[in-house]
Amino acid sequence: MHVCTGLVFVRFWRFFDDSPSAKYVCAAVPALATLHFVAVGLGYVNDAALVAGATRTGNRRELLRGPLLKLPWNPDKSWAGSAACAIGGFLAAHHVVQGFRKIGYLTLGAQPPNSVWIATTAACALVGAAVESLPVADYDNLTMSVAVWLTSLWLFGF
Hints:
Layout: H1 2-12, H2 22-42, H3 48-54, H4 62-65, H5 79-102, H6 114-132, H7 140-156
Helix pairs in contact: 1-2, 5-6, 6-7
């Protein structure tokens, strides 16, 4: 559920103009969704439907850190969960990258072949899945996001 707010943000980005405030207006919806998750997770807002639909245990605090899955270096993570993270991350990122390329928002100089974009996006997804599998349960969403961001800066150059 919360994964989709990022995709909504990037898909609607192109509908906003180049004014300095546009990025903040576009980011308002995922930001408000995040604040709602935090408010429910901390117990300030009661939203039984959100807790039932976004948690595995029915514990509202799970909204603050996500559900825990089961890998050799981290018994709380699974190979299936890490594979799903890598595949899902790649498919979502590839869709966004291709959409942004199509409308001219992403360029890499002389426009490398599609295989370069695919390989670079796959590398970012694999780094994300690897970092997500580390034994930092309370911070895995944050560390994964930062790792993918840094990897994309390094590989894509922006």
